[in-house]
Amino acid sequence: MKEESVDTTTLEALLSSHHYNMQRDIANAFREERLGDIVEGATPLDIDVEAPKVVMHIVPFDTDGNCDLSSLYDDDGKRLTPLFATTHKALFVRHYNIHGILSSAAVSQQLSAISFVQQSYVQLFRNGSLESVNGEIINGKNKTIPIVAIEKGIIERLPMYLSALHDLGINTACYVMISVLGVKDFSLAVSSEKVSWDDSREIDHDNLILPHAIVDTTYGEEDVKEALKPAFDALWNSAGYPGSVTSDHRSMINNN
After folding, report:
1. What DSSP assignment string belongs to 176-203?
2. Rounded distance between C-alpha atoms, residue 78 and residue 226, angstroms
3. How far, in Å, are 94, 102, 156 from residue 77 at the CA level?
4. 80 pLDDT exceeds 80?
């Protein structure tokens, strides 16, 4: 990790402090408000309200509330790519809005058409908070959740978001909060010798509000994978499994 990273001792101190509790309440309130807007369809883009969604929120500790976003607007935009969006299949658009910078991905419905449907976005707020929403990766028709692809995509994308925040001057710890919306009666799409199908159950909650993680803006893939394991475990628990088995996510993807 880089020299500016928040070390383990600092994170443990935050966990036991009154300051941590206050920041946690602020982050949870932000998450609750934003999820309410998403469920109601009050999003920056007109994404299908009924579509299942994966949502990530990042809320930094102690920002001054007014970051200069211009450097991120002017770069190549890859660090603000929405969750699970692929550059060879999507049209990316980035512009300022009332909250900060909106980066969206649209997918063509027809091979020869110029018509694109917006499926995902990243909203970067002026205070350094970030919201990433994808309404495409979960298949609402067959009610399955591609859990391996979701974990892999989050692990790969989160360090890019953290790097972007680091370049905004955010060198504090951040909350990362994953939510999976609209998935009651869904099951996990898993094919691995590590998983017993006897454990499999349909999810009995519509919205899964997974445990938050505390990360640092210099974290790489291995760091975020470890930090997010409790959240991934909870997602697997919701479908009847003892916990996530995707620590070796690359080999599992090859098996699916």
Report:
1. EEEEEES-TT-EE----TT--GGG----
2. 24
3. 8, 11, 16
4. yes
Q: What share of the chain is helix, strand, coil (3-state, %, to 5)?
A: 35, 25, 45
- Helices 147-167, 229-238: inter-axial angle, 10-degree rounding: 150
Q: What domain range includes position 228?
A: 8-255
- Structural domain includes residue 167: yes
* pLDDT tens sequence across 18-69: 777 888 999 999 999 999 999 999 999 888 999 999 999 999 987 667 888 9
Amino acid found at 58: I
When the pLDDT of each residue in the chain is averaged and rounded to a whole number, the result is 84
- pLDDT category at 253 given cuts 50, 70, 90 is very low
Domain annotation covers residue 117: yes
Q: Kindly state the tokens that stand for 135.
A: 């309404």
Q: Provide the number of structural domains found in the chain.
A: 1
Which residues have CB under 8 Å from 242's CB, separation 6+?
199, 236
Residue 177, in any domain of the structure: yes
**What is the phi/psi pair of residue 37, to 5°?**
-65, -40
Give the CB-side neighbour count of residue 50, counting CA atoms within 13 A.
3
Residue 2 forms part of a structural domain: no
User: Looking at this protein, which amino acid is placed at residue 44?
Assistant: P
| Confidence band for 199, pLDDT divided at 50, 70 and 90 | low
